[in-house]
Amino acid sequence: MCKCIYCNSEDLSVSDIISYALTGAKLTKKFVCHEHNKFTNDNFEKAAIYNLDFFRNALGLSERKGDNIKYKANLIIDGITIPNISVSGRSSIYEDKKRLFPVEHDGKRVLIGNVDKLKQKKNVSENDIKVLDMKDVVVSITFSIESLFASEEMLKTVAKIAYEWYCYTNEINCFISNTYQDIVDCILMKLPVTEFVEIVVDGNLDYALKDTIYLGSHGLFEYTDINGYKYVIYNFWGIIYYRIRICKETKPNDNLYNCYNLFLYGIDGEKWKTVFGTCGVSHFISMPAQQAIKQFNKVYSLKLEQLVKTTVLSLAKTKELVDDLKNAVNTYKQPLHDFARLVDYENDQRIMTIRLLLFLLEHESDYIFSKGFNENMKTLYQIDDTLTVDVGENKDYLKGLLELHKTDKLLNLIQSGIAFFDKIYTAEKNK
């Protein structure tokens, strides 16, 4: 029987070890009491996740009920800035028929919003309304990498994830005070988190796992160092490694050759385990979080930039994107043939989905159904590792789609691509 791993209470609730808000891979266990589940969520997890909302949206994550993730942004429309409004993507801007935004423009107070909504305002005539050019709407957000990855809230969230994951993988089902008192006191805000969580700045580790931990995923492993301390190394979203001190072991690790079980949790819901090794005593160089962020700010900035430009494709993720496209195609079939809504107002994931389907259709004769989806993708795209699609080329590709739309060829091509993918998906599920 489990007891709370923070206090040994038997009043248990299910804990999201890695919050659902941060991963597609469900990882839960009923071994945290209601009180401490609420404590961690209310005191730091919620705030840490809020800071990451824009990137969660970019990764294609959703709220627990399936709603799109909203984030705060400044909108620039036809030279007019609408500050600090809640959006969830380009469609939430173009199809917003309810909200009106008061802004200052040319020294005047004006309202920005849907034309029909403006006409409903008292004392507003059509002559008072100016139609804005929406083709180049800019969504602007501001953030600091320090607040994302080195804030008190984020470091405590990391400590909580590492401790609960450690208990989960080692089948620890109660609070063992003489072993885990310090890490628990850290999570419960009784000891400084900076004494337990640092950022790994070891280039050898980054190099060893760069092709294993992909963007958007979570990777964790444990090790004991030469001083006898047990640590968890936690890679968050393929961007940053944290080192979390869990407890003091009785036996130091002075082995020169070590193998580690690396557990991976994918953005698309996949979970798997692999093994990697190091030569030399177990030691991964780390430094205080804020210091590491300042020193390696450019490295993390480049990784974040890559994160928002890249979508990791698996069968499950592709199925999700194709199902969304099917709904858009049903709307596109209607007499208006609304191209903007079909491409979800130039949404990168939507364009990428169409690119993938038309690529598969083009290579239909090369697809080998006796092999798996991932293996086929590697062969067709001529790559050796996880398939990722950079959205940087979407602008040029969009022009080609528009030409197909104008010549009434686009619908048939997309429907054929969807039909071929459905055939692939059915074959994969029947194996």
Describe this protein's structure.
The structure is a single chain. This protein has 431 residues and is α+β, with helices and mostly antiparallel strands. 40% of the residues lie in helices and 22% in strands. It contains 16 helices and 16 strands. The protein starts with 11 loop residues before the first strand and ends with a helix.
- Count the domains: 3
Q: Which regions have little confidence, pLDDT < 50, spanning 5+ residues?
A: none
Widest sheet: strand ordering: 13-12-9-10-11-8-14
Return Rg in Å: 25 Å
- What is the total tally of β strands? 16
Q: Major β-sheet, in short?
A: 7 strands, antiparallel
Distance between the termini: 37 Å
Principal-axes shape call: globular
Q: What is the share of helical residues? A: 40-55%
Number of helical elements? 16
- Summarize model confidence as the mean pLDDT: 90
Classification by helices and strands: alpha+beta
Strand content: 15-25%
